[in-house]
Amino acid sequence: MIDSSRHFLPVGVLLENLDLMAHNKMNVFHWHLTDSESFPYTSAKYPNMSLLGAYTPAHTYSIDEMKKVIDYARLRGIRTVPEFDTPGHTGSWSHAFPNLLSQCYNTNGQINQLPNIIDASLEANYDILNNFFTEALALFKDNYMHFGGDEVLDDMKNCWYNNAQVRQRMNGLGFGNNTAKLLNYYWNKMFQMIDKARPNTKKIVWQEVLDQNVPAAGTIAHVWKGGAVDEVMKEVASVIKAGHNAILSSCWYLNYITYGADWKEAARNDSDRVLGGEAAIWGEFVDSTNLIPRLWPRASAAAERLWSDPKQTTSPDMAWPRLHEFRCKLLVRGHPAEPPNGPDYCPFEWNPLPPTRADNFVNDNRFILLSLLVSLSLTLIESHAFIL
């Protein structure tokens, strides 16, 4: 998963990462396109969403650029699964639709934060969502789409429960002051719209949606919580017990870095009983300057663990020589993969810049001298030929 909302990532960087994914046999590009910070996705139906919601008009992906990314991935055996995180993490949506989000208050009735969650009590908002997702489903033709759903509890309290207008509409819907029922209502409406717009769409949500007992039959839970392996497996077990498939990311949040060989944690984890695993890199402190070295070869350890025989990939000590060798191969291919395990070297060291003018000064002078000699020789030959 790559986050191109917190920091915009140019198309060229996305394409380079797709090449690296192909080198590592990773076959799903989870594209976290929008978040509260910015809205780089261009909608033909609602162009103001990116014109007003992106950092600048230059920090957007045109429809043609997104098609290029999708096609580039497809030709490398990679499916592109977009994520439009809702109902929370939607602050950037409000620039085009001020009424789409609900205002947030503290218990004293004072505004205490910027709007960040869709007002699920306002029926007109579902028309906007229906049009938006119908268009997105037509662009991203893969059967899977990610609908987010994480980190909404605080917003449900501040922006729904503490908002008198939302509470009034909740009472009109028969929910009383129960924001959990409003959240349930939101997801039921959303999934009905998605099923109508494109039947058989496989819907992925972050695990909180199911943790909050939203009855979403057939949805896939994306598990990202849990620290220790036992905690992670407990989360996965609860999802499976509820009848859902799971995607596991808890083990592979690669935006977190520690001093030393932190890739070893990626080599230890198992992938039993889930559809697959996903390495994720969030963009708060990642942009085009450090995306590739931050991801690789650390993501390679996750790729090996997910693809390979568990009996042969449980030892980080045995994995280290393979990872080091593969990192050197990535350098040869022109990718700035960072050192995975302390002091060492590769036979070929990656050079980030072409030779400078100073480095080429001697060669440039030799080239100029050679050019003059060639020109002089040609002139003499032509003159001699003319005289003859």
UniProtKB/TrEMBL annotation:
Entry's Gene Ontology BP terms: carbohydrate metabolic process; ganglioside catabolic process; glycosaminoglycan metabolic process
Listed GO molecular functions?
beta-N-acetylhexosaminidase activity
Keywords for the protein's UniProt record, in alphabetical order = Glycoprotein, Glycosidase, Hydrolase, Signal
Signal as a keyword?
yes
Active site, UniProt feature: E151 (proton donor)
The cross-references to InterPro entries, in alphabetical order and at most eight, read: Beta_hexosaminidase_sua/sub (IPR025705), GH (IPR017853), Glyco_hydro_20_cat (IPR015883)
Which Enzyme Commission number(s) are listed?
Answer: 3.2.1.52
Query: Which reactions are catalysed by this chain?
Result: Hydrolysis of terminal non-reducing N-acetyl-D-hexosamine residues in N-acetyl-beta-D-hexosaminides
Q: Which GO terms describe its cellular component?
A: lysosome; membrane
Residue ranges of every copy of the Glycoside hydrolase family 20 catalytic domain listed in the record: 1-309
Q: Name one Pfam family in it.
A: Glyco_hydro_20
Report the leader peptide range.
none
Keyword Hydrolase included in the entry's annotation: yes
Similarity annotation: Belongs to the glycosyl hydrolase 20 family.
| Task of the protein | Responsible for the degradation of GM2 gangliosides, and a variety of other molecules containing terminal N-acetyl hexosamines. Degrades chitotriose.
Q: What is this protein called?
A: Beta-hexosaminidase A
Supply the source organism for this entry. Diploscapter pachys
